[in-house]
Amino acid sequence: MTHKKLSSPDFGTKQERCESLGKHIIAHNATVREAAKVFGISKSTVHQDITARLEKINPALFKEVRVVLEKNKEERHIRGGMATKLKYSVIK
Asked: What is the separation of C-alpha 71 from the centre of its chain, rounded to a whole number of angstroms?
């Protein structure tokens, strides 16, 4: 899934960034890695914002984001298998 990178990650406060990340993840069914790329921040920052900060800032949004992230976690092995299959099909 391709997303347009935000030109400047100037969200003012961490609270605004956390909520923006949460809304993006829900809207695009994005993974932590995809969200990090779009927002121009590290995966660690996304993870910290979502798991530690968002739960305190906006519990309702956190619950929705958690559902998406759990689904992504369950599908992770499928994406890994597809990437490996593609890698070896290109080599042949």
From this structure: 12
**50, 19 contact by CB (below 8 A):** no
- The tokens for 81 are 């298998």
Q: How far apart are CA 42 and CA 58, in angstroms?
A: 21
- pTM for this predicted structure: 0.73
Region 32-41: mean pLDDT is 96
- pLDDT per residue as tens digits for the range 78-90: 766 777 878 888 7
Burial track 1-13 (b if 16+ CB lie within 10 A, e otherwise) = eeeeeeeeeebee
Contact between 25 and 50 (Cβ < 8 Å)? yes
pLDDT of residue 8: 43
Backbone φ/ψ region at 4: left (φ over 0), alpha (ψ -120 to 50), beta: beta
